[in-house]
Request: fold
Amino acid sequence: MSSEFVIFIAMKNYLFTAQIEKDKETGMYVGIVPNLPGAYSQAETLDELRANLEEVIQLCLEELTEEDISNLSDFIGFQQISVAV
Reply:
């Protein structure tokens, strides 16, 4: 008689916001996740950039403890500020 063990690993979902810019010199899209240190990437297309950022976010999260993750700052947003000089 054979015994089989099934291990279920509970996965958590995290939501991050990426800042995306297009580099004028190279034409590449550059993405940065402001509240996750080390999470940045670049790509020729937005679809490729999204896939790259998903991968780099996963890699960054693997290096952090649950406590580190819970202590990440909350991303609030961007604000435009006009200054005359």
